[in-house]
Write a structure and sequence with these properties.
five-stranded mixed beta sheet; alpha+beta; three-stranded antiparallel beta sheet
Length: 373
């Protein structure tokens, strides 16, 4: 490549525009020594919409495809448009202009079915290997993070920042761009549902060494029905099955940040892997919820997790912890912000207690609020 780029430089007078793209920025490496006048366009505002479809372009050029998809989904044009946006939009490099993933959008219109097409374009083995080596936080994608441009553009060989990797590989994008003096800061977030599902797939199946992950991704309706019907035992059984296949060496690993942390983050990934939209660590004026799950039928499930280290008198202690968790949700007003959302008609509170490294799991559901018609 170095020889090839050197030849290009020699014929620069004949080149009008050369566009190089990939995952990781390599402009500081010797491979480009023969082509030393590269301009990095990644964070330049004027080029923020060149690698995807804008909302205007989607509606203008794919109008007939959207109508066909709406018919196939037995849905309205407006609702289908909103679903496409939730699944495949959200990439932005200036914090304002967002674009749709072009490959996934085309695959959606070709198959007339919402799905995770992006993960099939390539297996990010380097990302999974990095997580295995470094035990970085597995819920990193669920919470926003503020970084500088240097973090987003750096290349350090084997010494990566997890935020650098996730941004450059497309798992994180820019949510907000702010300026403090002369320093520009970027707040990162996950672009869309498709990316969340891809992340959960690779991290849960790779980092936790779960071989039969595909089996775990077929439980969506069973989980949802258990929550809708306030079926405590059924939901506990499903979670117990899911966590029973986490290898014992993973549970015993102290570097991972503690057992409660393991089950919290694993539950997040498990729910996302089963195509639930989840919010982690939603803050209120007096507290911070563990997990909020968005379900069908405009239902939100607000969950609080507890962990008991000793299995002695498990049933009795779990019952007290379950009640304590539900009281905490109500006392710290975790549900209040959802009552005012137009897309919320029902709120269910959920307490989950893990006992003795997940040997037992207890659940308690409560019908907390319904919108009066």
């Amino acid at each position: 490549l170095s020889s090839f780029y050197s030849m290009m430089k020699a014929y620069a007078e004949h080149l009008h525009f050369v566009f190089l793209t990939g995952v990781t920025r390599l402009s500081g490496l010797s491979v480009f020594s023969g082509l030393n006048n590269i301009t990095n366009l990644t964070l330049k505002d004027e080029f923020c919409d060149i690698c995807g479809y804008t909302q205007k372009e989607l509606e203008k050029y794919f109008d007939e495809h959207i109508k066909r998809l709406a018919k196939s989904e037995k849905s309205t044009f407006k609702k289908t448009l909103a679903d496409i946006k939730e699944w495949y939009d959200g990439y932005t490099w200036d914090g304002k202009t967002s674009v749709y993933n072009p490959y996934s959008t085309l695959m959606l219109f070709d198959n007339l079915r919402f799905g995770n097409y992006w993960s099939n374009t390539g297996s990010p083995s380097f990302l999974v290997d990095y997580f295995k080596r470094n035990d970085v936080s597995k819920n990193i994608i669920f919470e926003s993070k503020e970084v500088t441009a240097q973090t987003l553009e750096e290349y350090g060989g084997s010494e990566y920042s997890e935020y650098t990797l996730l941004f450059q590989a497309g798992y994180l994008t820019i949510d907000k761009k702010t300026k403090s003096g002369k320093v520009i800061k970027y707040e990162l977030c996950c672009p869309n549902l498709e990316v969340e599902y891809s992340y959960a797939f690779y991290v849960l199946s790779g980092t936790l060494n779960i071989d039969n992950y595909n089996t775990l991704t077929k439980l969506h309706n069973k989980i949802q029905n258990a929550m809708f019907n306030l079926d405590n035992e059924r939901l506990a059984d499903i979670f117990s099955y899911a966590f029973s296949i986490i290898p014992n060496e993973i549970i015993r690993r102290e570097k991972i940040g503690g057992t409660e942390f393991l089950y919290h983050t694993s539950l997040l990934l498990f729910l996302v892997g089963n195509t639930f939209k989840v919010n982690a660590g939603e803050s209120t004026r007096v507290g911070r919820s563990d997990i909020v799950i968005e379900c069908e039928k405009e239902t939100f499930v607000v969950a609080e997790l507890k962990y008991i280290n000793d299995a002695g008198k498990a049933n009795e202690r779990a019952a007290k912890s379950l009640d304590k968790a539900l009281t905490q949700i109500e006392k710290k007003k975790y549900c209040d912000k959802y009552k005012h959302r137009e897309d919320c008609k029902r709120i269910i509170t959920l307490a989950i207690v893990f006992v003795d490294k997940g040997a037992k799991i207890f659940c308690k559901l409560k019908d907390f609020w319904r919108r009066k018609i």
